[in-house]
Design brief:
This protein is mainly beta. Helix content is 7%, strand content 32%. A five-stranded antiparallel β-sheet has the order 1-2-7-8-9, with helices on one face. The longest helix is centred in the first third of the chain and has 7 residues. The radius of gyration is 25 Å and the shape is elongated. The termini are far apart.
Amino acid sequence: QNPLDLRPEKGRSDFDVPQRFVASFLWEIPSPEGRAARWILGGWQSNGILTAQGGGSFTVTSGGDRALTGTGTQRPNLTGNPQLDSGRSRSDQILRFFDPTAFALPPAGSFGNAGRNIVQGPGSYNLDFSLFKSFPVREKMRLQFRTEFFNALNHANLSNPVANIASPTVGRILSTSPPRILQFGLKLVY
């Protein structure tokens, strides 16, 4: 916020995620005996990626150029603890994810004392899943039918809340991740 004083810029990086778990799986379903049964029930494959992570950090802003320097938005003054109990209900967290009363606008002509990225956003988890079926066409050619599910569990992962303390919706979460998306396709492998 202040190009002449870089000490307040020390803090968590914009892409800091404290915990992250990623697991991928692939299962080629065994083919049964017999030509007709193998053609119908064989050649199935399932795979997916499960991601679970803690929330990333974000910076609370004052909503304008309070220092009157023309350098853009600065940070407010920190007057209390912005973290609220994480055990609250999901609807309470959506309405008020952090405590905006823990911040105050600095006096005109001065920079705020709040550090960058001092609030941690909501965590998330996601499962992307796919199911394939390969049909033999010729000796070195097969037709693959693919079904892919992005956000297969249709879980609404919360976005970061409004972090501008001058906004009437400060502290509220106004968006989520996309819903379940299905994709079907045919692929000729030769």
